[in-house]
Design a protein that fits this description.
Elements lengths: L9 H16 L4 H13 L3 E2 H8 L3 H13 L3 E4 L8 E4 L3 H24 L5 H32 L1
Antiparallel strand pairs: 1-3, 2-3
Keywords: DNA-binding, Transcription, Transcription regulation
InterPro entries: HTH-GbsR_regulator (IPR052362), HTH_MarR-typ (IPR000835), WH-like_DNA-bd_sf (IPR036388), WH_DNA-bd_sf (IPR036390)
Organism: Qipengyuania benthica
Length: about 160
């Protein structure tokens, strides 16, 4: 089998590994962060074989984590005329899409918690639940502000 390993600089390799550690700290698989970072630094579409060979991981692991990154709308599948392989590359505005997902998630949490707060009978317990709803409201507002700033920079 032919290897399709991409040559990376020491700085690129270091960044890729650090992104893997960050992903792991956030509860994701290390390979998720490494794939994302590789696609960032290479700045071109890659096949799953190129990703696996470059990062020295199994193609199965790459496939699972590509699907995760795709579901987060950070990367997307692409094809090239005359090529049978599927390519993966960064979405055009992945960070605005990611923030929109956070906003939706925080708004959903807030609505659920607000509904629960009205049913909590103990005043101290209700106050705790209301404070949690406030936390998610602030998260939602903060992310809306970040989204506005990113959209300004993208236009």
């Amino acid at each position: 089998m032919t290897t399709r390993k991409i040559t990376l600089s020491e700085a690129e390799t270091d960044f890729i590994e650090r992104m893997g550690i960050n992903a792991e700290a956030d509860g994701q698989a290390r390979i998720t962060g490494r794939i994302w970072a590789l696609l960032m630094v290479v700045a071109r579409d890659l096949t799953s074989a190129e990703i696996a060979d470059t990062l020295m991981v199994s193609r199965g692991s790459v496939s699972i984590n590509l699907r995760l990154l795709e579901s987060l709308k950070i990367i997307e599948r692409r094809s090239k005329p005359g090529k049978r392989e599927t390519y993966f590359g960064m979405c055009e505005h992945p960070y605005t899409l990611l923030i929109k997902q956070f906003i939706e998630r925080f708004a959903g949490y807030r609505r659920m918690i607000e509904a629960a707060a009205s049913r909590v009978n103990r005043p101290e317990g209700r106050e705790n639940v209301v404070n949690l709803a406030k936390f998610y409201e602030l998260q939602e507002r903060g992310h809306r502000y970040m989204l506005e700033e990113l959209e300004k920079s993208e236009s």
